Amino acid sequence: MRIPITDRLLACAGFVAPGDRVADVGCDHAYTSIYLVQNGIAPEVVAMDVNAGPLERAKENVRRFSLWDKIELRLSDGLAALYPREVDTVLIAGMGGPLMERILATYPETVRMLKELVLQPQSEIAEFRRFIQRIGFRITEEDMLFEDGK
């Protein structure tokens, strides 16, 4: 059984380094988390969302694909429920740049320990790029795609 993942989320998943432990922040339905595990990209994923409703959908999907041993679900505002060095990569997709900036800036110790960030801001992109540089990361790869009229 294959997970119904959009081209946008597929592009994000393609930037995750194989073998990295991943935190999927704002996981919503957990499709990206499931894809990463199903395809052997990530050995384990911490899928987090700030709202109980999306996390419930994620729980149903993880159960449907029998991935309880590989995907841990957490109710979390941004990186609040993530510990430093618990994962190698943080993936955040489908949020505005200012919200993503707040999430990363609130937990500098956790962010500083990461190997990589996979980010897909949907607004304020120029300012978000400057922010990424200010916190010590650099953009090494990027991709643009057209989806749902955007």
Number of helices: 6
Which series of helices and strands comes N to C?
Answer: HEHEHEEHHEH
Globally, the shape reads: globular
Strand order of the largest sheet: 3-2-1-4-5
What is the distance, rounded to the nearest whole angstrom, between the alpha carbons of the first and last residues? 29 Å
Q: β content, as a range?
A: 15-25%
Main sheet overview: 5 strands, parallel
Give a count of the beta strands, DSSP E runs of length 2 or more.
Answer: 5
The low-confidence parts are none
Determine the structural class based on helices, strands and strand pairing: alpha/beta
Relative helix content: 25-40%
The radius of gyration computed from the alpha-carbon positions, rounded to a whole number of angstroms, is 14 Å
Keywords:
globular; about 150 residues; 5-stranded parallel β-sheet; alpha/beta
Architecture blueprint of SSEs:
Blueprint: H1 7-13, E1 22-25, H2 31-38, E2 45-49, H3 52-64, E3 71-75, E4 89-95, H4 97-106, H5 108-112, E5 116-121, H6 125-134
Parallel strand pairs: 1-2, 1-4, 2-3, 4-5
Helix pairs in contact: 1-2, 4-6
Describe this structure in words.
With 150 residues, the protein is α/β, with parallel strands linked by helices. 35% of the residues lie in helices and 18% in strands. The chain is built from six helices and five strands, in the order αβαβαββααβα. It has a five-stranded parallel beta sheet with strand order 3-2-1-4-5, with helices on both faces. α1 crosses α2. It starts with 6 loop residues before the first helix and ends in a 16-residue tail after the last helix. The mean pLDDT is 90.
